[in-house]
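Please go through the protein record below and explain what the tokens say about the fold. Record follows.
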Amino acid sequence: MVGSGLCIGCGGCAAAAADGAMAWDRYGTWKPAGAFAAERSAAFALRCPFSPAARDEDAIAAERFPAAPRATALLGRHESTWVGHVAEGAWRGTGSSGGMVSWVAAELLRTGAVDAVAHVVASDSPRDEGRFFAYRLSRDAAALRSGAKSRYYPVELSAILREIRATPGRYAIVAVPCFAKMIQLERARDPVLRARVPHVLGLFCGHQKSARLVDSFAWQLDTPRDRVRAVDYRIKDAGRPANWYRAHLTLDDGSARAEDWWHLADGDWGAGFFQNSACDMCDDVVAETADVAFGDAWVEPYASDGRGTNVVIARTPLIDGLIRAAVAEGRLALEEVDAGFVEATQAAGFRHRREGLAYRLTWRRWRGGVAKRKRVAPAARALPLRRRLVYRGRAAIARWSHRLAWLAARTGRPGLYLRWARPALALYRALAWSHGRLGGWVDRLLPDAPRR
């Protein structure tokens, strides 16, 4: 799995092995480390989320949510779909979006449905811990608030899963789609986890970034990497559109550096800078195996509301009932919507994970066993040339951003990466959005190519 590029670094395999461990690779992603990582077994193949032998999201969801009254090819099985935000307390203001992830987690704690929630928080001492973010168990609302906001940083679950196995109680885990799938695969084989993890809270996901994104922020904000003490990927500003991300670094002397993503050399999310290679083989945008899933409402008028707005997919009667009761009480400002609305908010992600995946499955690198367990079939003939160039461009940017950022960090010469990243992004934007002269040239050459 590691050699194929399909390891996402979730830590599930390390948690299940007596001598299991996870370590950073040279590109800033987590990988299995130690003797156990060389083992080959049928049990491992069945529980790795990207393994061709593991059950897919449809099979897991059918077992997990057998009575769900609704289902679509893109959203999976579900009870209800919503758009809006938390109306009570400071949940909306302290979160990246509408505050719904932390609110649901806190509500599960308040009602006694769980005793603790595993979620990602900032490290107290990044230099000593060797990471800026990690999973932690929180047992009250105040602790949950410390983990609010988006963390576009690699984390792994091995220590948390070991702690859950060792400590009786009921737990909820906040997870991106592939981590949620791993948790459900582990629950299916481990009765302890099955009893102790009754809820998984899912996050919509475009792709996972490597830790090198922090290096890039530091280079572009003229800051030594070892002086960075905290990272905020999305500074919320009610006076600006929600999708105007702003990177913010706090330094060891308490000062700060910040810049809008749009002005960064690698600030276009869709271009794929520092993307984990396994993400190119993912077909789940909305955490189809999680009990509830949350994303941003990337359609108007919500995308322009800097206060933040969530879309929510409830997949279990318990979560659906919890939301409906809170809406009736005025604690949540949510409106029930149809599945098509939620799908529209994530249109670019679905296109990359379905149309783009079908094309990537035809590439030599990905042909073979992995294609047998994807929910789309390999296809390329119907795809316009320009769309093929966009998908090829994203893959190249992901691959070379890892390599050149590693070289820049190793040699102490950030320009090696930045002088490549700027023209690479310009070319990608020309292909994807028809910006500038090159974009116009592409349009004239390929007049029938659809816009992103």
